[in-house]
Specification:
A hairpin with a 6-residue loop joins strand 10 and strand 11. The chain is elongated. The strands form six sheets. Strands 12-16-14-15-13 form a five-stranded mixed sheet, with no helix packed on it. A three-stranded antiparallel sheet has the order 4-10-11, with no helix packed on it. The protein has a two-stranded antiparallel sheet with strand order 1-2. It has two domains: 121 residues, no CATH class; 88 residues, no CATH class. By secondary structure, the protein is mainly β. 7% of the residues are buried.
């Protein structure tokens, strides 16, 4: 490769505005050695790889918990036998957690997929779908456990960090329909016993999100519409309990904390958020 050198002959700088007049000339000088071998090669190209760290253990603004590799390169089938993560016990190994370190960061190979024909007669057009398929074949697939509201960051040794974030449409519909359901108790009620079982109000999948006809004086849970599912022993159910749904009676004077007079009853059951807290804007 020729080496271009530039020689400045003189500088004429006058008093006044900060401008300078420069007369220059250039010449082509043969280099002492060439950076590449100009001889004909066999056409093989050399490739390089670089590591990328996904996630950041110490950054609260990063949403990656861990990720899964694929079972083999070039496939999208995830290997769920282990998960790579920064969050693991430091003094002992714990399956299926596999700690992430400098030796475990994934390797990537830069590529260029031409969007035009590269073989004679160079006239066959490339369909957009075919181009996307060929380009996607170079991609690396990972399955990740993430916070859907927090971006995941990718770091390399020479490229600026990049944020990877799910577009809102991938999770918004799920949030619009998501409710909560979990076991709760024992909780105390200012009652001498739970209400009797009512077969006409038996809990089913059809009425689980309806407003219950009866309430229990449980502690209010604030935002949202909650139901309490109280289990009862069913003599004809083969050992399986049956349930009655109850609303949560929002009462009491929070400015005068204290216990009501007894008796009290301890109950155990399930709490369900009947309707999503996040409401769609549509």
């Amino acid at each position: 490769m020729p080496n271009w050198t530039c020689a400045i002959l003189k500088d004429d700088v006058g008093v006044g505005p900060p401008f300078g007049n420069q007369s220059t000339k250039s010449k082509v000088q043969e280099p002492e050695r060439y950076l590449t071998d100009l001889a004909e090669t066999d056409g093989r190209k050399e490739y390089y790889q670089f590591q990328v760290r996904l996630g950041d253990r110490d950054a609260s603004y990063d949403g990656l918990v861990g990720y899964f590799d694929t079972t083999a390169p070039g496939t999208d089938e995830l290997n769920l036998d282990y998960i790579r993560t920064f969050f693991f016990p430091e003094r002992e190994e714990m399956t299926p957690l596999k700690p992430l370190n400098n030796d475990e960061y994934p390797l990537f190979t830069p590529f260029w997929e031409p969007p035009y024909p590269t073989k004679v007669p160079y006239s066959d057009p490339i369909e957009p779908a075919d181009f996307d398929n060929r380009r996607n074949a170079h991609m690396s697939v990972f399955g990740a456990i993430i916070d859907p509201f927090t971006p995941v960051h990718a770091y390399s040794s020479f490229l600026p960090s990049t944020q990877l974030m799910l577009p809102p449409w991938t999770w918004q519909q799920a949030m619009n329909t998501m409710t909560a359901f979990f076991h709760a108790g024992p909780l105390t009620l200012p009652l001498d016993d739970v209400p009797n079982y009512d077969a006409g109000q038996k809990l089913t999948t059809q009425n689980a999100r309806d407003i219950p006809q009866r309430d229990l004086p449980l502690l209010s849970l604030g935002a949202g519409d909650w139901s309490w599912f109280q289990p009862y022993d069913d003599k004809n159910g083969g050992g399986e309990p049956v349930y009655n749904p109850f609303g949560i009676e929002k009462r009491g004077d929070l400015t005068k904390p204290g216990f009501q007079d007894g008796p009290y009853t301890a109950v155990e059951g399930f709490l369900q958020l009947r309707n999503p807290i996040v409401v769609s804007k549509e």
